[in-house]
Design brief:
Layout (H helix, E strand, L loop, with lengths): L9 H12 L24 H7 L10 H19 L1
Length: about 80
């Protein structure tokens, strides 16, 4: 996105990421999982996006694992299409 997302106010960033995943099936990985922090780790908004979409992890300790699963599933889906 060439830094465009980072130029937005945090509330607008959140809304954009939620909108990107609002039509995602309940059992599908979230596209917003591919948006990372500056160190290519889970974005701080990921947990809030999950919560907003009624997909919170079973436990806080599961959050990192859930993010990793979403990222891996998206990579697999993308590689199967190309």
């Amino acid at each position: 996105m060439d830094g465009g997302l980072l130029d937005l106010h945090p509330d607008d960033q959140m809304e954009l990421l939620i909108q990107a995943d609002s039509g995602t099936a309940q059992d599908a990985p979230l596209l917003s999982a591919l948006v990372t922090d500056d160190n290519f780790q889970m974005h701080p908004f990921y947990a809030r996006i999950l919560d907003h979409l009624d997909r919170p992890p079973a436990a806080e300790a599961e959050l990192q694992a859930q993010w990793h699963r979403d990222v891996l599933r998206l990579h697999v889906l993308w590689s199967e299409r190309h």
